[in-house]
Amino acid sequence: MPQERIPAAGDPRPDPEALLLRAKEEAKRARLRIFFGFAPGVGKTYRMLQVARELVEQEVDVAVGLVETHGRYETAALLLGMPLLPRRKFAYRGSVLEELDVDGVLTRKPRVVLVDELAHTNAPGSRHQKRWQDVMELLDAGIDVYTTLNVQHLESLNDVVAQITGVRVRETVPDAVLERADEIELVDLAPEELLVRLKEGKVYIAAQAERAATHFFRRGNLLALRELALRQVAEHVDDDVLEYREAHGVDATWATSERILVCVGPAPASARLVRAVRRMATRLRGPWVAAYVEVSGRAPLAEVDRVRLEAHLALAESLGASIVRLDGLGVGDAVLAYARKHNVTRIVLGKPTHARIWDRLRGSLLDELVRGSGNIDVHVISGDDERTTPTEAARVPGASFEPRPYLLASGLVALMTAIGWGLREAFHVPDVEMLYLVAVMFAALRLGRGPSIFVAGLSVATYDFFFVPPYYTLAVRDGRYLLTFTMMFGLGFVMSALATRVQRQERAARSREERTRALYALSRELGGSQAEPEVAEAAARQAAEAFGVPAVIVGEDGAETAWPRGAALQGSEHAVGKWAKEHRTLAGLGTATLPGAKVLCAPLVVGNQVLGVLALRPEAALPHEQRTFLETFARQIAFALERVRLTEQARQAAIKAKTEELRSSLLSSVSHDLRTPLGVLTGTASTLRDEATLSPQTQRELLDTMVEEAERLERLVKNLLDMTRLEGGELALKREWVPLVEVVGSALSHLEHLLGTRAVHTHLPDDLPLVSVDPVLLEQLFINLLENAIKYTPESSPLTIRARVESATLVVELADQGPGIAEGDEERIFERFYRGAHQGKSSAGLGLAICRAIAEAHGGTLTARNDGGAVFEFRLPLQGTPPTVEA
Amino acid sequence: MNGPLILIVEDEPQMLRFIRASLGSHGYRLLEAGTAQEATQLATTHAPELILMDLGLPDMDGLELTKQMREWTRTPIIVISARGREDDKVLALDAGADDYLTKPFGINELLARIRVALRHVREAASNVSEPVLTIRDLTLDLGKRQVLVSGKEVHLTPTEYKLLALLAQHRGKVLTHRQILKDVWGPAYANQSHYVRVHMAELRKKVEADPARPKLIVTEPGVGYRMRED
């Protein structure tokens, strides 16, 4: 008996489906091969070209995207005969820079492309700031990339290398890129040999770096760098082993439950902290989070600090951290709350660098964390020695000195002095102190911190000068006054601090509130919109308002549709939009991709769909917090677009269902109505053909029947076609300016033979305006109404057509003097396939339904009532101004 | 038999049989073509006096064929088609067809249209247009520019007169709004159909007994106007 294999719980072997999927992905995924060295000149490029040549010999499609030979003969020789792709040229400050032509490679699409110097920074105006970003794009496009990299360019080793060599490398590559590599080949050379090569001039060093290079190429340095490089490659091998284990169902031997949180601030030391944590995270193989806490009520950061904080967070992100911004009353509480909630196992923060007294006053963060951490480990890592200078710099806001508040402050003190002087007879001297305190308070609330402290100082001086004996000198006879002065100044200082704090809180709260309000306004406005263009239009308007810059929404198809109407991306901006859409990330001004563009694009993403792009045109790059806000904003818009889209789909589905329903009821009804006349026709015709003995009179009767039935069939078919046209919703009215009398007259002459001798009274005033209608459809409406009246009233009964204009509405009535409409049927007669209670008068019951459909298509109404017979009333709102006609 | 020679361009055998039977019995001689190519060939070799043209031909649209033929012949063309939409009619008439009949149609209708078309040809050939036309109650003296309704003279504005004279000269034939506008107002007005409508309403007040039930000039909805023959 065949047994089905049931996987045991916790079966370590991976699901075969997943493995298959993985194998497929592997097959598709482009390979990145890095030739890794510890210093320039070890021969990375040379080695890369050697490998490439071997591939060429095996007839693999290899192309050289960009390789720098730096005039080295051996390297250049290897390039001979290899297919070189043209480079892209950029004019920059009078010289021409040559860069990798990403688009060129993408179009050419070789199997393998060689791109030298992964850490290179691209010329301004390139798509990406960094070459490694170009490489990632090529890999995404499925092209294998061979590239070269030196160990000192690795982001996480940046500090270590700087410490070893004393040279800080500016061009760095995120570690994630190295991790992405499928193969890392270490190009090694004994340091001694490298030094020899250097002496022989075989190592290329840029002219401007020569002095630095002499520091760099010291034997000790080289040994250390070499070890770093070896270790890095070894670690990568470790990773490979790990992946292998995972791929082959070997349980991981290490705990994967580690999760590290690093507290990041604006202090320069944070960057180092971030790099250290990244190394720790790699070692522990756990995810890590970089957190920044915005303490409620604390002053917003100075511009310099903010920029630095953003840089630290961006660094952490590029090193693979996820970024969180926490709100809270205190840093410690916020961090601990987050850590507990997200199972963080380690919290890392920098060593405190401030004086101990601050801890006494404001409480120590470290203390707080350690006490509250429970079973979470807290690591404290040393800060950097650069700490003081930038902090000082940060204190001085970028803005220049503003003299106005100080002048005002002086005026204030003068005023108080004048009042005190005028009333000095009536006042006690201490009362004058109070006057000065009022000045300090006012300055604190209105003029800011500097001026308020200035007021405090000036007040003490003036008070001493004018009111403290000996008068008109700054000398003090009575020692007690010194205490008064100190208290006055101290009070002023504290008050100004408090007032400033209140002001800042208010400002922070206001900006938060503004953001919330903008989001609320957005969701409210979008919620009210029902169609996609409406939503997009509203969203663009709200975005422009919230960010105070021009905003455009570009539709899914790129350039074709954009809102608001008339706006669109221009020229190179399309590339930004395209990038944002394809990579589902912010692109353009101030981001990593095309940072030089004038436009900042946010993709509108819902699930795995990109519905379009929100493009802003700010004057300058947006700060990180605004960018995060932009992403939230874009998400909201995407949801709204998705909503209307789904609604529209549902509506379409409903229409389809209704159409289906209609079609089937139509079919059943129509098949009867079609078969009857066809039956008569066939029967009569065959009688005429087969019966030889018919009298001429009978023959004549049969022939008349045939013609009648054929005409009936024709009317039925015409009605069906009309109905289909009207129901299909495809019918576009061909409105023209028409005199009503022509339409009515045309309908009457169409029915001349049916009307026969019946009396028709028409009362159409001469001054009726022209009406904007589809003349053909309106005639059809009258024909059907008249036919209906003719059918259901005796021949002797006259018909009356009357028209008038009533509050900008044309009213046309058709009245007969017949039996009228059966009670309760006044509405039902307009339903499809409804037939009045008149047996023997056959019709598909479509005529009146068509009339109503026509009336409604014109924005009018058609109703029926009884008034000495049946009265049909057609009301048509008069729109527009009729054109004038020359005589 | 030497009745007028008519070329029928029609690819449906049943339709052909019906037309053949009825026209034959009225003394017309017939040529039959099932394709546009045959039609062109027969029209050039036999010089028919009138062409009945179906629009749905296997090798070419009848509309296109009409346009082509209009480049070299003035033989009247009557379109007979199952395409009943007003736009189709206007297209065919503006392409140069003289008249348009929607299927299904009665034989009397067809015979009447053929008579009208042939008479217009004869009138054009004899090159003497009757100076005085009498249609029902209307007498139109083109020489004197005089209009009588039931013997009483009515005064028309110059535009109304031009409109009336144009329709009278083509009586029995439908004229599209465009054709009328071009002729009466000039090519620049070709799209101002409300001009015709407004003046037509005025004209009818003067020449029709009941403008709401016109007997003389009938409206072809969405297409144009036709003056009745008798």
Describe the structure in brief.
The complex is a heterodimer of chains A (887) and B (230). Chain A is α/β, with parallel strands linked by helices and 887 residues long.
Give keywords:
heterodimer, A: 887 residues, alpha/beta, five-stranded parallel beta sheet, 28 helices, disordered N terminus, B: 230 residues, Rossmann fold, Arc Repressor Mutant, subunit A, 2 domains, four-stranded antiparallel beta sheet
Topology, element by element:
The complex is a heterodimer of chains A (887) and B (230).
Chain A: H1 16-28, E1 32-37, H2 44-57, E2 62-66, H3 73-79, E3 88-92, E4 95-99, H4 102-108, E5 112-115, H5 131-140, E6 144-150, H6 158-165, H7 175-180, E7 183-186, H8 191-199, H9 210-216, H10 219-247, E8 260-263, H11 269-284, E9 288-295, H12 303-318, E10 322-328, H13 331-341, E11 346-350, H14 356-362, H15 365-372, E12 377-381, H16 388-395, H17 404-422, H18 429-446, H19 449-467, H20 480-528, H21 532-547, E13 551-554, E14 562-563, H22 573-583, E15 587-588, E16 600-606, E17 609-616, H23 624-690, H24 696-727, E18 736-738, H25 740-750, H26 752-755, E19 760-763, E20 771-773, H27 775-792, E21 799-806, E22 809-816, H28 847-857, E23 861-866, E24 870-877
Parallel strand pairs in A: 1-6, 1-7, 2-5, 5-6, 8-9, 8-11, 9-10, 11-12, 19-21
Antiparallel strand pairs in A: 3-4, 13-14, 13-17, 15-16, 16-17, 18-20, 21-22, 22-24, 23-24
Helix pairs in contact in A: 2-3, 11-12, 13-15, 17-18, 17-19, 18-19, 18-20, 19-20, 20-21, 20-23, 21-23, 23-24, 24-28, 25-27, 27-28
Chain B: E1 5-9, H1 13-25, E2 29-33, H2 36-46, E3 50-54, H3 62-70, E4 77-81, H4 86-94, E5 99-102, H5 107-126, E6 132-135, E7 138-141, E8 146-149, E9 152-153, H6 158-169, E10 174-176, H7 177-184, H8 193-207, E11 217-220, E12 224-227
Parallel strand pairs in B: 1-2, 1-3, 3-4, 4-5
Antiparallel strand pairs in B: 6-7, 7-8, 8-9, 10-12, 11-12
Helix pairs in contact in B: 6-8
